[in-house]
Q: What sequence folds into this?
């Protein structure tokens, strides 16, 4: 029996999770998309039955937010139906399943942080497909299913805002960055540690929010990145989201509350600035 099974093993979050588990000598099976395609339900059931994990972390996902607007059925096949197949495969084993999700399940209209039980109203296709995955896990695994919503995730691997800003700082004299969307930058290394802590805890199943504490705009985030790089943040100009029209609308305010996380006695979710300073992303970016 393998204690951990991680899908989507070539992704940013999975990479951080696998690195942490390896450092702690945890037995883990890492499955990349070429090893396991969540759209193939029989293959999902065979894989889980063969490895018999105690804990499954589903890092496999369709994450192309804008592409999902015109390819929603394809995104749903992974984020919704594929997640349900994985949950159904976990059910007979009594395995815990942790499903990373997103702030995009909310509409961004709230002035206060979203509670874990706040009504969900996604405004784009990606958010709808991730919400379908959340519901599948909670329905199929009411006693062993966990949804972990995060936001503005970045890491040393893959495309993300921090790496993009670091690259643009080297190549452009000035940058325009949106200042009317607010959220919580979250380092994938921190999220991986929080997922491990949740899996090892006695926390009740259900929905948890795990993001960097505090809040900022994309503009504020970019300024902090430039400052840490030793660059002049004055090179960044704030602009409205209307000037950066994209296929998928983004929530204007998607700050998440951490009440349930804190009540469960889980590790404190540190400030996003502290995490950015201590992460390895700007060094590798």
A:
């Amino acid at each position: 029996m393998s204690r951990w099974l991680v899908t989507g093993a070539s992704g940013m979050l999975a990479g951080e999770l696998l690195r942490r588990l390896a450092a702690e000598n945890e037995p883990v099976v890492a499955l990349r998309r070429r090893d396991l395609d969540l759209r193939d339900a029989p293959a999902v059931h065979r894989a889980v039955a063969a490895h018999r994990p105690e804990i499954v972390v589903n890092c496999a996902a369709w994450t192309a937010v804008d592409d999902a607007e015109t390819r929603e059925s394809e995104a749903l096949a992974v984020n919704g139906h594929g997640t349900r197949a994985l949950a159904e495969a976990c059910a007979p084993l009594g395995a815990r399943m942790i499903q990373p999700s997103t702030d995009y399940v909310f509409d961004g209209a709230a002035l206060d942080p979203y509670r874990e039980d706040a009504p969900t109203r996604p405004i784009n296709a990606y958010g709808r497909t991730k919400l379908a995955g959340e519901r599948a896990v909670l329905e199929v695994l009411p006693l062993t299913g966990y949804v972990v919503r995060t936001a503005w995730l970045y890491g040393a691997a893959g495309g993300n805002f921090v790496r993009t800003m670091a690259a643009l700082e080297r190549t452009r004299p000035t940058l325009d960055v949106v200042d009317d969307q607010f959220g919580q930058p979250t380092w994938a290394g921190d999220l991986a540690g929080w997922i491990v802590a949740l899996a090892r805890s006695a926390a009740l199943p259900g929905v948890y929010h795990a993001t960097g504490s505090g809040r900022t705009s994309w503009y504020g985030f970019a300024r902090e990145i430039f400052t840490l790089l030793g660059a002049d943040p004055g090179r960044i100009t704030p602009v409205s989201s209307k000037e950066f029209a994209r296929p998928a609308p983004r929530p204007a305010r998607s700050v998440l509350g951490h009440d349930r996380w804190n009540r469960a006695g889980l590790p404190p979710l540190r400030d996003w600035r502290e995490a950015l300073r201590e992460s390895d992303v700007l060094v590798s970016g």
Q: What stands out?
A: The longest strand covers residues 96-102.
